[in-house]
Amino acid sequence: MFKNLRKYFISGLIVFAPLTITVYLFFVLINSVERFFSQVFHPLFYKSLGFYFYGLSIVVGLYIIILIGFLVTNILGRKTYEFFERLLLRLPFFKQVYPALKEMVLFLFTEDRTKQFKGVVLVEYPRKGIYSMGFLMNDSSPHICEKAKEDLCNVLIPSVPNPVTGFVILIPKKDVIFVDITIEEAFKLFVSGGVVNPSK
C-alpha cells in the first residue's frame, strides 16, 4: 500500500510541479510587467480618462513595443535607431551593460540566433578525459590561429541550467567531436542539468 502511494505521489508530482511552477512564473512575469508599466500609465489614464483597470498597462505596453518594432523595420527608423545606439555605446555604464542585454534578448527571441550555431560538439575540457558539450560558433580569427600555430575554432560552452550564459573556448579543429543531435535537444540537456538525455 505504501509503495503504491509513493508511486502515485511521484507520478502526480512529475505532472503537478513543472505545470504549477510554469504557471506561477507566468503570473509573476505578468505582474512584474504590469507594475513596471502602470507606474507611467496608471496616473496618465486616471488623469485624462478617469479610469484604469488591471492589465491595461500591459496592452498599452505591447502596443508601444509593436509600434517601435514597426518603426525600426523601415530604413529611416533603423538609421535613427543605429545613430542613437552608437551614442548610447559611448556612455560609460551603457557600453558595458547594453550589449550583453541585447545579445541575451536576441538569443531568447530570434530564431536566427540559434541558426548561427554550426552544430553541437564535444570537446575534452577542462582536461583530457573529461568531455564538455558545446556549440560550434565559427572559425577563430586567422591572426589568433597564426599566433597559436593551430587551426582553431570558437566553441561556446553554455552554463547549466541557463544556456543563455556561458563562455567561449578556442580549440584546435582536430580535437572537436561532432555530435549528431539537434540544437534543441542540446538545450534540453543543459536546462535539465543533464537529467534529460538527447533522443539519439
Layout of strands and helices, then pairs:
Elements: H1 2-48, H2 56-72, H3 75-88, H4 94-109, H5 111-115, E1 119-124, E2 131-139, H6 142-148, E3 152-158, E4 166-172, E5 177-178, H7 183-191
Antiparallel strand pairs: 1-2, 1-5, 2-3, 3-4
Strand proportion, as a percent range, falls in 15-25%
Number of helices: 7
Largest sheet features: 5 strands, antiparallel
* Secondary-structure element order, N to C: HHHHHEEHEEEH
Give the domain tally: 2
Overall, the morphology is flat
For the residues shown, what is the average pLDDT? 84
Say how many strands there are: 5
User: Alpha-carbon distance between the termini?
Assistant: 37 Å
Low-confidence segments, given as residue ranges, are none
The assigned structural class equals alpha+beta
Strand order of the largest sheet: 4-3-2-1-5
Helix percent reads 55-70%
Rg computed from alpha carbons, rounded to a whole number of angstroms: 23 Å
List keywords for this structure.
single chain; 200 residues; 2 domains; five-stranded antiparallel sheet
Describe this structure in words.
With 200 residues, this protein is α+β, with helices and mostly antiparallel strands. It folds into two domains: 2-88, no CATH class; 112-191. It has helices at 2-48, 56-72, 75-88, 94-109, 111-115, 142-148, 183-191; strands at residues 119-124, 131-139, 152-158, 166-172, 177-178. It has a five-stranded antiparallel sheet with strand order 4-3-2-1-5. Strand 3 and strand 4 (166-172) form a beta hairpin. Helix 1 packs across helix 2. The radius of gyration is 23 Å and the shape is flat. The model has no long low-confidence stretch (mean pLDDT 84).
